[in-house]
Amino acid sequence: MRFALFILLFSSLLLSLPVVSQTQQEPSDKPLYFATGNEANVTGTISVKGTLPKPRDIDMTADPSCQKLNRKPQTEWVITNQGRLQNAFIYVKGDKLNAYRFEIPDSEVMLNQRACYFEPHVFGLRTGQMLRIINSDPTFHNVHPTPKLNPEWNQTQAQDAPPMIKTFRRAEVMIPIKCNQHPWMKAYAGVMDHPFFAVSDSSGEFEIRGLPEGTYKLVIWHEVLGEQEMEITVIPGESRNVDFTFDADKKP
User: Fold this and answer.
1) Fewer CB near the terminus (10 Å): N or C of the chain?
2) Structural domain harbouring 180
3) What would the pLDDT profile of 72-123 be if each residue is shown by its tens digit?
């Protein structure tokens, strides 16, 4: 009887303790950046030349649901369209950006599990921004990011299960995400503490808007072709075009 009473009191004490939210951000004394309306825009195209690695066939026989959803499943390491490169992550870094903090958007970023692939394959989001993860497949999946600067977590998600809502507290480029149930499933998240990043689309194009004037490093990352960077200086109201080309014959 005494033991049961102790358990009841201990449980009540636990419930009374404050809960630390996953979205709580580390305190910062940096001033909040306010746009002037006269910032610069940076656009460009990511291309690739040379001999590209061929996609490999994926054996999905271990999960008949995945096999049924894909006639000829292949890896998605390098996706091109007439020499234009998709899924490159482009971001800006520089001392000027480090001097400010930027308002966290209210919008969510969606990561779907569709046809036994992560969708999108490469994406970006802000520190503290909500990441909504859903499973659109008639099978179990497992979402397992392996960051270096953020806490690691590993969670299974069934079909029609409630969305997972996650955040990352620290900037980190790039965070690999895998599914332990289906080893071919890969995704990469670029977590930034400012809004100046983009992912190249199916035409290899990207756009970064609202960049304050100054000198920066523009960095381009790709999971197979490596990383490039270029110094750029933008002036107020400028529309700047910057193109990049990866050489597949030069290993990173």
Assistant:
1) N
2) 33-247
3) 999 999 999 999 999 999 999 999 999 999 999 999 999 999 999 999 999 9
Cross-strand partners of 49: 247
Question: C-alpha distances in angstroms, 164 versus 106, 130, 181, 232, 243?
Answer: 17, 10, 17, 38, 37
Taking the C-alpha atoms of residue 22 and residue 158, their distance in angstroms, rounded to an integer, is 22
Over residues 52-72, the pLDDT tens digits come to 989 999 999 999 999 999 999
Question: Residue 237 domain-assigned?
Answer: yes
CATH of residue 42's domain is 2.60.40.420
Number of domains forming the structure of the chain: 1
Q: Are 230 and 34 in contact (CB under 8 A)?
A: no
- What is the tens place of the pLDDT at every residue in 161-194? 999 999 999 999 999 999 999 999 999 999 999 9
Determine, yes or no, domain membership for 13: no
